[in-house]
Amino acid sequence: MSLSRRPHRPEGMILVTGASGTVGRPLVELLVSAGLKVRAVARNPSALPRSVEVVDRPVLEGVTGLFVNPRAVGDDIDGLLAEGKGVLKRVVVLSAVNVDDDLDMQPSRWRGDRNTEVERAVTASGLDWVALRPTTFAANAFGLWAEQIQHGDTVRGSYAEATWSPIHELDLAEVALHAFLDDGLLGTRPVLTGPESLTQREMVSAIGDAMGRELTYLEMAPEVARAALVGRGFPAGFAAGLLSLQARSVGVPALITNEVRRALGRPALTFARWASDNAYVFGRAA
Asked: What b/e readout covers 20-31, taking b as 16+ CB neighbours within 10 angstroms?
């Protein structure tokens, strides 16, 4: 069952931070398709629709809606929200499912995310807000496995039986759009997941199926996997945190919620769908 509809039409422009990122780019496209004016803070504007106004820093003039990517705004969130008082009507923040966990159990902090601080700032701002709390992005598969799959049929990684409920970035973007166009999510923190619990081995196999290749996941000892991640440029703290989370999930089904269906009136997209959409990134087909 979907949420009861309470339509809302933004009066002004929507400012999207992190607009060339995993969620920001499809969100910008959806906002434009919905007939809304969009200003985008983006490092790679070439991928955005031509009708979008692109800036290199947040500019709130004429803006009534703000999409906050914590990695993009970081420590500037308090100043941005203060500037938005009396201007902004709604803030949608991209947070994370583990935002209430101890900081050492939030490995993405080592890559610049400040989900805890940014969500707290937004929800305490006095503005209308929605805080989206997604689980693991399906797109994390790019950084973890794409290079190996491009060069062969064996993926070496940690904890083959660790479980995720990976979410397609299109689902996140569509729920964010819904948060701007409907009042039903106001003041909520929906936990957004994919529709199924999958092991690392099963996800790699799904990518292979999408490519018409048989891929094998070879589990490495944790210390070897940690060194391999660091050797590929991941921060040591991120590698340690990721492996810790994986270890805790072995044999435990990943959290699955119905929040995507409630917001959009349809099931969340499967990882197989994501793999099919993105098979070209992983290299050669069979």
From this structure: bbbbbbbbbbbb
Do residues 156 and 144 lie in contact, with contact meaning Cβ atoms separated by under 8 Å? no
Task: Tokens for 181, please give them.
Answer: 């166009």
Which amino acid belongs to residue 193?
Answer: T
Task: Give the global pTM.
Answer: 0.92
Domain that includes residue 123, residue range:
13-135+169-193+255-269
Residues 6+ apart with CB under 8 A from 221: none
Which residues pair with residue 192 across a beta bridge?
Answer: 134
- Maximal CA-CA distance, the chain: 57
Confidence category of residue 256, pLDDT binned at 50, 70, 90? very high
3-state secondary structure of 193: coil
In the chain, count of helices (H) and strands (E)? 12, 11
Domain CATH code at residue 130: 3.40.50.720
- Residue 221, classed as helix, strand or coil, is coil
Q: Give the amino acid at 61.
A: E
Query: Is pLDDT at 190 greater than 70 in this prediction?
Result: yes
Q: Is the pLDDT of residue 120 over 60?
A: yes
Per-residue pLDDT, averaged over 104-129, amounts to 85
- Do 235 and 110 form a contact (C-beta atoms < 8 A)? yes
**In whole angstroms, what is the distance from residue 71 CA to residue 275 CA?**
25
Is 158 within a domain? no
Q: Give which of 90, 123, 124 is closest to 8, Cα–Cα.
A: 90
Query: pLDDT per residue over 193-223, tens digit each?
Result: 999 999 999 999 999 999 999 999 999 999 9
